[in-house]
Amino acid sequence: MTERQVVLRETRDGVQTLKLNRPDKLNALDFALTEGLVQALKDADADPSIRVVIVTGAGRGFCAGADTREFQVLTPDNQALVERRAALTTELQGLVKQMSKPVIAAVNGYAMGGGCGLALSCDLALAGESARFGYPEVKHGIVAAIVMAGLVEHVGRKAAFDLVATGRTLDAHEARQLGMVNRVVADADLLGEVQALAQELAAHPLQAMQATKGIFHRVTELPFSEGLKIGQQLNAHMRAFRQAESTE
Ligand code: COA
């Protein structure tokens, strides 16, 4: 019997769709799925034939966050495992920013805790009408810790504290109002809309797209005056892009 693939990969016209494949557990992130997704994202980034990546979930969930059943073994007397888990989650939550190509989340259902963080970590996110978002960690007696930076970055302090302190669930429209997703579409249209957006990005000149993503994530980390400076440098450098494209 072949081993079930934890992340399904499908590539069409330069766009690779990564589908979390643990539908019976709403794609909760256990070790295997987290490792599988990290590897799949790294492979996609390294593959020159892929220009844009889509992340979505199999079944009725996008990703229900950390696998709560693993909490039983993640105890202080298993400190090495606890630290390995924290490092793996941190790697996943920060990975899209490190990648050279755009990643789009297609949020097709529950996006909770680390799953919500995953959606926010993508460069763009579209949600189906039935998508639900939230950071319920505090209800489990833990903290939405690794996902906190990404949440504050997207929604600001007041809204972020509301979400992590209440653990409440948001519908797709509220998530859109808070800036957690770009657009809400009918469930049935979600994958088609995301695929169309991905194809639009994939059609842009590669070097310009990669440099746009690169400078975007640097600028978000920098004070305005330094962001302006690296913009000036890229502006001078990018003049060579069009020449490079035309000689390809
Ligand atoms: N970890 C492990 N398993 C999970 C899970 C998680 N985070 N979230 C859902 N599942 C499993 C359920 O245990 C259930 O498995 P079972 O059929 O073997 O019992 C299956 O996925 C379906 O979940 P269920 O709760 O029956 O679906 P629902 O539609 O009634 O509720 C949620 C959906 C998302 C509201 C609910 O599953 C939930 O609250 N999950 C936990 C989310 C969470 O707290 N994430 C952050 C963890 S720090």
UniProtKB/TrEMBL annotation:
One of its GO terms (molecular function) is isomerase activity. The keyword Isomerase applies. The keyword Membrane does not apply. Pfam families: ECH_1. GO terms for biological process: fatty acid beta-oxidation. Keywords: Isomerase. InterPro entries: ClpP/crotonase-like_dom_sf, Enoyl-CoA_hyd/isom_CS, Enoyl-CoA_hydra/iso. Belongs to the enoyl-CoA hydratase/isomerase family. PANTHER family: ENOYL-COA HYDRATASE, MITOCHONDRIAL, ENOYL-COA HYDRATASE-RELATED. This is Enoyl-CoA hydratase/isomerase family protein. It comes from Pseudomonas cremoris.
